[in-house]
């Protein structure tokens, strides 16, 4: 990891690197460093997604919900519901799957590998 960068907004040097971006502890501003963005682009299309237990997920895996999830405009997905043949996608919700014939985008932190 590189040395702390000064905040582009308030120019103070009380910053830290938080997984994918830099955060200013004084003003709360968040930004991405050009170097870390360049490193991410050179890695290629490899997408690393881990479930709630830290196991790596791959396309085609089966997963199980570890808690009830409320779905906007629908019923609740119950704990223990199984999704077969998942697909990994980029974004906030990393897993694209079907449960009971309905397609959902879910966060991997609410899933465990079956």
Structure, explained:
This protein has 1 helix and 13 strands. It is mainly beta. The relative contact order is 0.16. The model has no long low-confidence stretch (mean pLDDT 84).
Search tags:
114 residues; mainly beta; three-stranded antiparallel sheet; 1 helix; 13 strands; 8% helix; 33% strand
Return the structural class: mainly beta
Widest sheet, order of strands:
1-2-3
Strand count: 13
Ranges where pLDDT stays below 50 over 5 or more residues in a row are none
Mean pLDDT: 84
Counting H and I runs of at least 4 residues, what is the number of helices?
A: 1
- Termini gap: 35 Å
Helicity level: under 10%
Largest sheet: 3 strands, antiparallel
Strand content: 25-35%
How would the blueprint of this fold be written?
Blueprint: E1 15-18, E2 21-24, E3 30-31, H1 34-42, E4 49-50, E5 56-57, E6 63-65, E7 69-70, E8 76-77, E9 82-83, E10 87-88, E11 95-99, E12 102-106, E13 111-113
Antiparallel strand pairs: 1-2, 2-3, 4-5, 6-9, 6-13, 7-8, 10-11, 11-12
Describe, in short, the structure shown.
With 114 residues, this protein is mainly beta. It has one helix spanning 34-42; strands spanning 15-18, 21-24, 30-31, 49-50, 56-57, 63-65, 69-70, 76-77, 82-83, 87-88, 95-99, 102-106, 111-113.
